[in-house]
Structures are given as C-alpha cells and as structure tokens.
Design brief:
By secondary structure, the protein is mostly helical. Helix 5 packs across helix 9 and helix 7 packs across helix 9.
C-alpha cells in the first residue's frame, strides 16, 4: 500500500529543466546499483541516508536502533532494486521499504503502547497565531516528544495516511486501540500547543 499524504496545502515548486536533469541522474544511479556497482551504491546511500534516517527516527526514538533499522532497510533496498521498474517515485519506493522495516522493528517491541493521563484540552489553541511563530521543525519536535504509542499511531495516521484498520494490521493491535492512541496523541499535542501559546503570550507582555 502506498501511503496517502493528508497534507493538502503543501505546494512544491520546481524548475522543470532541473527536475529532468535530476531524474536523469537518478536513473543512471539506479541502473548502476542494479549492476552492483559499489561506488553507485555508496552514492545512493550518501544521497538518501539523511531523509531515510529521519523517517526511521519518526517511529523509533532510540537513535542507535534507528540507525540499525536504516542499515537493514538499505540492504533490502539494494537487494530489491531490480524490482523498481521506474514507475512512480524512487524515493517513495525506498521510503516504503524503510517504513515497513521500522514497523517490523516496532512489532517486535510491543511495550511501545504505554499511555499516560492527559488533562483534557478545554479549548483549541490558536493555530493561526502559532503557525506564524512555530516552524515545521518545532512542530515535529512536539510530535517526537509524544509517548511512543501515541507518536507511532499519529505518524501513521496523520502523516503517512494509513487508516485505523491498516494501522491495526501493521502493528498487531485493534482498530479501537489505534483510535484511542490517536485521540490521546491529539490531546497531548493540544496541551503542548497550548503551553507554546502561553509562552508566546508571556513573551509579548
């Protein structure tokens, strides 16, 4: 299943000529990797490792464990690169392998579904005000700070576009557990955003 991103307002601009050149170089690199060219394999890793590692870290908090998962996933990418037929995004194809490997790791570590008591959010934070002050990086830090179970389900549902049924199948949990984790993740984020809002207000006083 190909993740369906829910972020609809994101606009990406690119120069068609630059994009064509980039695609051509990508194709050359992929073909060289299919021939088991060691230098091409290294170049592929160097080019994409940062993005793929960031994906691992969205699901696996322990940095060393995330690095191990990335190495395993990248080995599978190189082993299966013949399966990529040039249809769709090569980066997206690699990310699906990395995400699947991350989920395999999580299924082996089922103590990730810890919960904590969260004071119910009595109101929505002022998202427009926060949007002008909080960068995407700050928002990702708030998500990263969520307890593991909340963070994993939130990432799968809100960022990578999985349904609760698919999340349940991937993680070996019920749909209701997935829904509960998502609800608690949202409450936790609302609380963190309210705290951020209060801090912004105090700074302006």
């Amino acid at each position: 299943m190909q993740p369906r991103h829910r972020v609809s307002h994101l606009v990406i601009a690119f120069d068609p000529m630059e994009f064509t050149i980039y695609r051509a170089k990508d194709v050359e690199l992929i073909e060289a990797c299919k021939r088991k060219n060691a230098q091409a394999q290294k170049s592929l890793y160097d080019h994409y490792a940062g993005k793929l590692y960031a994906l691992c870290c969205r699901y696996i908090k322990e940095k060393m464990e995330a690095e191990d998962v990335l190495i395993i996933a990248f080995t599978k990418i190189l082993d299966r690169i013949d399966q990529f037929k040039g249809e769709g995004s090569f980066e997206g194809w690699m990310k699906r392998i990395v995400l699947n490997e991350s989920l395999t790791y999580l299924r082996r570590n089922k103590n990730m579904y810890q919960e904590m008591d969260i004071e119910a959010a009595d109101r929505e934070p002022d998202f427009e005000k926060l949007e002008s002050h909080l960068q995407a990086e700050d928002l990702m830090k708030l998500i990263e700070a969520l307890p593991s179970g909340y963070r994993i389900v939130f990432n799968l549902y809100a960022i990578d576009g999985y349904s609760h049924k698919e999340i349940g199948e991937q993680l070996g949990i019920s749909e209701n557990t997935s829904k509960s984790q998502l609800s608690r993740a949202r409450l936790a984020l609302q609380k963190s955003l309210r705290d951020s809002e209060k801090n912004l207000i105090q700074k302006t006083i």
